[in-house]
Q: What sequence folds into this?
């Protein structure tokens, strides 16, 4: 077996699988970006209340980043590479992204909704 990168034990088949996965990740991220930033914003602007638009604006970038990081994690899982530090970095990045997303949702969306509700009372 001929290894392209000897110190990581990666052969040509794994490189091609990795490239295919990266292309799919780029295509998926582009489609998700278009859906989040263009299609859903157009739909949500038609609503009377702004809470959906605020939620979308807060969630768009973390959702995109979570998609990309999860796709990379799945790529490494499918290739069955024994690169422990890469798994740990990707898993930590996914956890940090999810935590950041939840905190932003709470700080901006829930607070916005409560302010709007308080003004109605």
A:
């Amino acid at each position: 077996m001929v290894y392209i990168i000897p110190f990581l034990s990666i052969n040509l088949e794994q490189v091609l699988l990795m490239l295919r996965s990266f292309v799919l990740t780029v295509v998926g991220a582009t489609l998700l970006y278009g859906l989040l930033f263009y299609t859903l914003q157009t739909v949500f602007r038609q609503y009377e209340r702004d809470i959906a638009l605020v939620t979308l604006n807060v969630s768009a970038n973390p959702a995109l980043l979570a998609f990309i990081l999860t796709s990379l994690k799945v790529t490494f899982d499918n290739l069955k590479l024994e690169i422990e530090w890469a798994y740990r970095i990707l898993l930590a990045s996914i956890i940090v992204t999810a935590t950041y997303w939840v905190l932003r949702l709470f700080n901006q969306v829930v607070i916005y909704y409560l302010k709007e509700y308080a003004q109605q009372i």
Observations:
- The chain has a mean pLDDT of 84.
- Helices lie at 12-44, 51-79, 84-120.
